[in-house]
Amino acid sequence: MSKLNTFTPLGVVSTGWLLTFLVTMCGCDKVEKITTYPVVKHDSLQSAEHLANNERMHPKPERMIGLVVPRETTLWFFKLQGNVEAVTARENDVRDFLKSLQFPSNDRVEWTLPAGWKQLEASEMRYATLVLDGEPPLEISVTKFPGRDDLPQAEQVVMNINRWRGQLSLPPIRDEDLTDQSEQIPIAGSTGYWTSLVGRPRPKPTSMKPPERKATPSTETKPEQSADKSTVPYNKPEGWTDGPSAKFAAVSLQVLDGDLKAAITVTSAGGSPLLNVNRWRGQIGLGPLTDEQLAATAKKVEVGQTAGDLYEMSEEGRSIYGVIVQNQGQMWFAKMAGDTPLVERERERFIEFLKSLHL
Question: Is domain 229-356 in CATH 3.40.309.10, yes or no?
Fold first, then answer.
């Protein structure tokens, strides 16, 4: 069989060679994809910023020892929290100190301060702070809250122990578990409930300064309609400014006073009221409520042309005022959260803001 040849101006070319040439040329257009991967340098893993963020997101276990003393109209709380070994080393000292407690009245407590300890002045959230001697520095927080007539004392004790457990990322206990999960100690004619917990503190939020905003001249001093493109109309109270953009918020505002800050948001989401209120409580280290407790804490407020339920909660300098509104089959949440002194100061403006909302 004769071999087929192809005639070209350059001469005779074998068909086999031609096919090989064409296949080779076609393959030249195929470029392999190059994938790159970022590799974190070892020195960046040891930077102060990385180590601080890692410690914040993955805190080391801590130990908390505390005593709850229910009186007739008041609940008293004595709490020490810190490094596991350090707290354990001072446990007996704390127990001895608590034996000196005396209650001249339901709203007052007296004690004998051990040598070397210091007592700091009362603050808005604490009745007193007691600083223990030695290293590392440890302190006992002394707080009090009014009791509730609608709940048995034991149930109120469990609620607050669960508040402490939430601060260490521990699950709540049931009312019937109180005897097994605490030690009953006689304190000045009352029964105190001693608890010892070990867990991981909730990650602390990063401290970030809000971006500076240039002041814009205003010809009016009264609240004005927000220029935000939100689908939820509202009146912006005097002194409030636009807040950082929030992905799921229909409204994002803030109020600042020195180092104090409060954020105001309006969102729409799902879930039951109990689930969302307990989520808020968990954000500031409070324990969960039951359905009955939720109903007892709700306060009716005016929200636009309808009504909502207001839930107020505070813990260790942080407060949340949350409102839940169910309107035409949709659930809305209006929340003011931040530093307790500022949140309490802005309460009336928050109430007026709620009245201006058109959901």
Answer: no
3-class state of residue 353 by DSSP: helix
Condensed to tens digits (0 to 9), the pLDDT of residues 70-105 reads 998 889 999 999 999 999 999 999 999 999 999 998
Bridge partners (DSSP) listed for residue 167: none
CA distance 35 to 32: 10
- Mean pLDDT, the chain, as a whole number? 80
- Alpha carbon 300 to chain centroid distance? 25
> Largest Cα–Cα distance in the chain?
122
3-state secondary structure of 75: strand
Q: What is the pLDDT of residues 344-353, one digit of tens each?
A: 999 999 999 9
Asked whether the bond before 136 is cis by omega within 30 degrees of 0, the reply is: yes
Q: Which residue has the tokens 């949340």?
A: 320
Q: Which helix (H) or strand (E) holds 184?
A: strand 183-187
Whether the full predicted model's pTM is greater than 0.70, yes or no, is: no
- The segment(s) of the chain belonging to CATH 3.40.1000.10 are 229-356
Q: Which two tokens stand for residue 48?
A: 């102060």
CA distance 301 to 97: 45
- Specify the pLDDT at position 359: 78
